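Q: Give me the 3D complex with flavin mononucleotide.
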Amino acid sequence: MDILEGIETRRSIRAFTSTPIPQATLERILITASKSPSYRNTQPWEVAVMTGEKKERLSNILCEMVKANVAPNPDLPTPEIWPPELDKRATEHGARRFEAMGVDRGDTKQRLEMRLDNFKFYGAPCMLFLFIDSTLTPWSIFDMGLFSQSILLAAHSLGIGGCLQAVVAAYPDAVREFLDIAKTKKLIIGISLGYPDLEARANSHPSTRVTIDSFVRRYA
Ligand SMILES: Cc1cc2nc3c(=O)[nH]c(=O)nc-3n(C[C@H](O)[C@H](O)[C@H](O)COP(=O)(O)O)c2cc1C
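A: Here is the predicted complex, encoded as structure tokens.
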């Protein structure tokens, strides 16, 4: 798979087979992602890799917090208001997901189940949590975006799917405590990884994109 094909065919995967990712494959993905560019070559990423029982236990803790209606308190603020055009895209994306999953928007029980799917890490055999030092600036968040895309593309080229999961960063204190990570580290995002279950409903709705004319201005 060349780079163009990899970028074009990658998509978020939200259901996985139970096949574990071989350790060597996981290492390869992380080594490849470590080649990502970063501001002044600072390489700010810190990665917790969870598999097996440890992953299950954290998932259970987070699911219990969601069910108990604990208020999310992410280290990165969630926007209160989006520019209308972007909000429209997000709403359409959400509606497509609900439709594909057969979930009625007004059904709070089904919506809770869909939210919990995030905290079950979509059944992925491997879950990453990405941290950075809390003294860092938005430039380092920029680096984390590049690093995350490298993880997804490296994984994809090896037949492994993944999904970025901002939602699972809702309870950073609980995650830090469970993983014994210092309070001075900010939780940025989770990434679930595993072999895609392409028959699953959760993977049945590829996302759409606006055309380049809607975001490019040409000057000559
Ligand atoms: C910063 C960021 C956070 C995201 N958080 C979530 C999340 O919490 N749960 C989820 O299911 N998908 C999440 N996604 C995946 C997006 O929904 C997905 O990338 C987008 O809809 C485009 O679809 P595609 O990845 O299949 O091309 C996130 C993506 C990004 C870049």
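A quick observation: The chain has a mean pLDDT of 97.
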